[in-house]
Design brief:
alpha+beta; SH3 type barrels; five-stranded antiparallel beta sheet; 3 helices
Amino acid sequence: MAISFPLSSYTPQVAAAATPAVQSTKKQTLEQADFLKMLTLQLQNQDPMNPQSNTDFAAQMAQFTALEQTREMSGSMSQLLQRQDVQNAAMMLGGQVLLDDGQSGVVDRVVLTKDGSPRLQVGGKEYALAQVMDFQLAAKPETTVPTPTGP
């Protein structure tokens, strides 16, 4: 999501003050601190004869709020996907897998890395979940129910 600022509120001082901060870190997006710094500079250096309108200021604050909500949602989605990967890996326990290196075998164990990503242990070797090309559930042992005999 791009954050836009009205060109009428830019002064040479705002552009000069904001440019080194953005260029020195070589970022492609604005972070929260960058946005607040730019907003502060914009307010400090606005033309007193032509101040920024309340509507422009409110629009910028709305953009900032939307940006923060999007960032939080992105973090939540990443956590959800990681939990889903753990659940998928756990489901593969005891199942037969075909891996992208041509190996196949039974998933003996699921190990979580320090960052929480699951790794499958197949034949004593660990593999990432993304390396699984095919999966078959473990065959369930047939259970027979004894039939009652007698009167």
